[in-house]
Design a protein that fits this description.
The chain is α/β, with parallel strands linked by helices. Helices cover about 35% and strands about 20% of the residues. A 10-stranded mixed beta sheet has the order 5-4-6-8-1-9-15-14-10-11, sandwiched between helices. A 3-stranded mixed beta sheet has the order 2-3-7. Helix 4 crosses helix 7, helix 8 crosses helix 14 and helix 11 crosses helix 12.
């Protein structure tokens, strides 16, 4: 294997569940046709709220007993990993399970199970004998990746990457790095989220004044719009099969795209409020690593969560880097599905990958009255845009404590 191809990492399989689709074809069609996955959702103590809810078949790859013993995040991860392997057409039985790694970004994992157990014992005067003996394996941070290894018989390394809402990108980056180091031969990499199963995430955003409300659930998530009023929480997952280019070519694999560059940095300024200068720095670093200029990027998926200040801060960063990039198409996937937290980076990037074939940038929906403070002349509003070329796609994912990640995929 050449040194060059050892460092070239490609995507050969995709498995996902999103609030508006359970595979790439469904997801992409929803994005091009303006189909939202946000709906009314009832959660403990808060009652009716809004959320992006997935409806994949948990029993497609698990038995009822396994679902009961495990976690929602684990079920999401197993579904996505299994679908990704099938999509890759890899001969699973012929590969060494010790040479497969599982690297998944997560945010809120563990909260759901603890909340459920506290609520359960509250029904029995807080007698802890009713506390589940499954609680510890359900709440350890590596749970979703660990459930994948148990389900699929993988004996290579597995762990999760806690990077707030940058975690989906980070799972992919970690998988690529481990392949480049020669630690594994295949990586199952991406991100998963069970966030809507915990009432605490809704309650916290609500207390911050950052939880979206709208009489029409499908119009609730409104990035860059004047009437945006907060985050729509969502669950979901997306996992890639990543391989070194030589290995993919040897087996004649379908290649969705190649990892061209990435960058990670930290704001070091605030728990929550993003810092535009550091976001711009992260974008520039990813371009430098890929050997690209801002003019080379064809589609950019913005992180924008539809919070008042967050969208303004990211817009400043994008204007700073891309002010002269007139061909660029900027879009936002959260407007369709809400914020899938640990899965966001992977899902949002994936929604754009079919543009390498069909040349369409999917739109940002619900952008009826653009906020002048979020002015981005390149943004695709409410309807898909046909592009003359699509060679490079960038995905921004930023998170609390100022963790920034940028990932660039190029046409293979």
């Amino acid at each position: 294997m050449t040194i060059d191809n050892l460092s070239r990492i490609v995507i050969t399989g995709i498995g996902l569940t999103a609030p508006n689709g359970n595979n790439l074809k469904e997801f992409r069609e929803s994005l091009l046709n303006g189909v939202s996955g946000v709906r009314a959702f009832n959660t403990r103590y808060l009652g009716d709220t809004l959320a992006g809810v997935c409806d994949f078949d948990e029993l497609k790859y698990q038995k009822k007993k396994e679902v009961r013993r495990g976690t929602r995040a684990g079920s999401v991860a197993i579904y996505c990993a299994r679908e990704a392997v099938i999509d890759s057409a890899i001969q699973w039985e012929s590969i060494d399970p010790a040479r497969i790694g599982v690297y998944l970004g997560v945010t809120e994992h563990g909260n759901v199970e603890t909340e459920n157990e506290v609520f359960n014992i509250s029904q029995f005067n807080y007698d802890v004998k009713y506390w589940s003996h499954h609680h510890n394996p359900r709440t350890v941070a590596n749970n979703p990746a660990g459930e994948v290894t148990l389900n699929m018989g993988i004996t290579g390394p597995h762990y999760t990457i806690g990077a707030a809402c940058a975690a989906g990108n980070m799972g992919i980056i970690q998988g690529a790095q481990m392949l480049r180091l020669g630690e594994v031969d295949q990586a199952l990499a991406g991100g998963v989220s069970e966030s809507i199963r915990t009432f605490g995430i809704f309650a916290s955003f609500k207390s911050e004044g950052a939880l979206a409300v709208h009489e029409d659930p499908e119009k609730a998530c409104r990035p860059f719009d004047k009437k945006r009023n907060g985050i729509v929480c969502a669950e979901g997952g997306c996992i890639y099969v990543l391989e070194r280019l030589d290995d993919a070519l040897k087996r004649g694999a379908k290649i969705y795209g190649e990892i061209a560059g990435y960058a990670i940095n930290s704001d070091a300024t605030d728990f929550i409020l993003p810092e535009p200068a550091r976001q711009a720095q992260c974008i520039r670093l990813s371009l430098k690593k890929a050997g690209l200029t801002p003019d080379d990027i064809d589609i950019l998926n913005a992180h924008a969560t539809a919070t008042q200040l967050g969208d303004i801060q990211e817009s400043k960063a994008l204007r700073e880097v891309f002010s002269h990039s007139h061909r660029l198409a900027i879009n936002n996937t959260k407007s369709f599905i809400g914020h899938t937290m640990g899965a966001a980076g992977a899902l949002e990037l994936t929604g754009n990958l079919p543009a390498f074939d069909d040349y369409y940038a999917h739109p940002t929906i619900n952008l009826d009255d653009p906020d002048p403070e979020c002015a981005l002349p390149q943004i695709v509003i409410n309807h898909p845009k046909k592009l003359k070329k699509v060679d490079y796609i960038m995905n921004n994912s930023f998170g609390m404590f100022g963790i920034n990640s940028v990932l660039i995929i190029k046409r293979y």
